[in-house]
Give the backbone structure.
Amino acid sequence: MMKLFKYLKKYTFFIILAITFVTFQGLLNLYLPDLMGDIVNKGVTRGDVDYILSVGGKMLFVTLLNILSAIISTYFAAKVAMLFGKDLRSMVFEKVMNFSLYEIDKFGTSTLITRNTNDITQIQMVVFMLLRLVALAPVTAIGGTIMAISKSPKLTMVLLVAIPVMSVAVYFIAKYTMPLFRSMQKKIDRINRILRENLTGVRVIRAFNKTKYEKQRFEEANEDLTQTALKVNRVFALVFPLIMLIMNFTIIFLFWIGAVQVDKGALQVGDIMAVMQYVLQILFSFIMISMIFIFIPRASASAERVYEVLTTQSKIKDPEKSLLPKGKGNIEFKNVTFYFEGAKEPALQNISFEAHPGEFIGIIGSSGSGKSTLVNLLLRFYDVSEGEILIDGVDIRKITQKELRKRISLVPSRPVIFSGTIEDNVRIGKDDATEEEIIEALKIAQAWEFVSKLPKGIKTEVSQGGTNLSGGQKQRLAIARGIVGKKDIYIFDDCFSALDFKTDSKVRLALREKLKDSTVIIVSLRVATIMNSDKIIVLDNGKIVGIGTHKELMKTSQVYREIVSSQLSEEEIA
Ligand code: ADP
Ligand code: MG
């Protein structure tokens, strides 16, 4: 947690204000019992009403000051804690945005969400507590002891018993609750993960009648978290009676010893009352300190989780100086082999091929053959394990990711639709696209026919995830987004499969015209989609088993022939 606290530095001024006023509050607290002792000793015992009123007025004034200091210090403590939380959330968010797919795979989505919300809230809470108590507790404990001793050293001796007893109790409580807090964060992660899976997969869960099973899965995780939380709360339920017991015993002893002293004439009644208040204040400050000790472990578990995100270096690093390849989008894969993290078998092995501007390259292969992986490597979502990928003769690891991705357009196999209008969704492909350009892109993607029929046209709102659109409609929007901007390289990863044959061929025909100067890679499971390509690459199990035109491959590649004969009729093949 200390490591995160360095980000508090810029709030030093507010922190000083918070601590100054809380110290002031502590000092004023110490003054009150003294005044009260005076009232009893000099006012009540002598029946001096004027004295009682004047000192009483003073007490009222001190109390007002006290409240004021408390308000000011709380204000600044809260301000610092909230700003700190805000900073952490932005930092985590920015970090995660820069993660490559390695890191996203490694953490998993739900824990990244928990870390950026719940965990940071825990840290924020402890920062607030620390700012409020870090000064108040010591001032009260030390100042209170001094004041009490000045009234009556004998009476103050009760603390010698009370404090050790209290400390032992607090130690055992903290020891028991710390690990529980740690595991609670993990359990919150799990609940979030199940909830997320359920919400994103709601259609599948309903369709397979798994609602009951999922409900049970959630119930279990929920129950698990509840049990842990209950354990913690049970301990806390014991804490207060225990502390009250210790306190009340202390007071009984105090009065007992005090009464004897008063009897002897060695002490005044007002002093007993003052000492009693000091002792209570001191013990309360011990409780506050112990509270911090209980909450700090929880927050530090959270801080570790946040810190882990902040210090994870993206495996994919930008070069110091970006080389700007001169050319129009020549792609060359040179003996590329790629292993996923921890995988024994390579997902891609010895991939070599070239693609040039003006060419349409088709990639075909059964599902799981590594087509999407190949595309991900080209966009540098992952780095190759062996070999290299060149764009216009430059290794893509020597180009910044931003420069690289500026030149490539990707339409992924699963269309991603964001909440907003249709126009917003297409414009992601080109920030400054005009309405005409958007409509043109929609037309090429064969999306205009359904968009133009919508009451608000391109201004129509789509819901998050595009649930108010059909699969093919989403896919066509994604294609429009992919082609709206001018790029050197266009990649269509299996995105024609949600389209019917007629639309598929219409889109491709339009693309041929629009993208005739660019390098175009079309990935598909469907022969019809790629058979007219200038070059077809056949992938099988991560290896290239054939390269050539449809005609050539029909002669040379057994795998290709099998795919073709399973999909096309005799006359189509001919
Ligand atoms: P395709 O797009 O041809 O259907 P992919 O390229 O998506 O196939 O996957 C190729 C292989 O890599 C599959 O065996 C798949 O299990 C594996 N794979 C894909 N993504 C990951 C990942 N993030 N982590 C580990 N293995 C993966
Ligand atoms: Mg794929």
